[in-house]
Amino acid sequence: MSDVTEAPERATHDGDLTIDELAQRTGMTVRNIRAHQSRGLLPPPDVRGRTGYYGPSHLARIELIREMQGQGFNLQAIRRLVDAAPGSSEEPLRFLRAVAEPYTQEQPEVLTREDLAQRWGSTDPGLLERAIKLGLLRPLGDGSYEDISPRLTRAGKELEALGVPAAVGLELATTIRRHADGVARAYVKLFVEQVWKPFEEAGAPEDRWPEVRDALERLRPLAADTLLAIFGVAMADASEEAFGREIERLQRRRRSKH
What we know:
This protein is mainly α. The chain is built from ten helices and five strands; from the N terminus they run ααββαααβααββααα. It has a three-stranded antiparallel beta sheet. Strands 1-2 form a two-stranded antiparallel sheet. β1 and β2 (51-53) form a beta hairpin. α3 (56-70) runs parallel beside α5, α5 (91-100) runs parallel beside α10 and α9 (166-201) packs antiparallel against α10. The termini are far apart.
């Protein structure tokens, strides 16, 4: 880019933008746009003469990067996904948007440290660190945090109402997250082996991108429904086994008193 003048004057072709105009349109700085280019996240501009111009594809790519960052993807992961989806059509970008789409429709909430201390009934920094490590909270850099799953937070408050301390609730969430990671990896492995690899081995033809994206989108509710159904069966079995033991123990205690 050192030999290209990214002119501040207006572009002469419809839809073309100079780097300054692109920065203004996207709310980014020129420096960040150039950083995205150096990382391979953003295609180079169309150079005419010594001037670089940016078009709709650059706007779409920046929007995609923001969407994926908003879902927790780091720039390295985004670059890998972008590199895996070459081509001039919009279908690869649509597939990447499907990858970035959240698996729940919850709206995150923004909380301060004071909000969290009030919810947890504690100012223990260890609770905050554990919640961030679990992926339940995302630091926003201004002393506030994004609550990724308010529904899970509500469940934690219900546990507290039952007398379960916040620290114990987070320990339970740690255990559940560990098992959920295993389930998630199993479904992703299924998709990669049964859908993605055959597509890749076929040369990733552009006319099959919609088919791959449709398979990914159909996997979302299928994974959730299957997990919930199996959990229902497992919960019933575990409850029957555990409370069967507890009732027998209670009966033995009563008999020993008589």
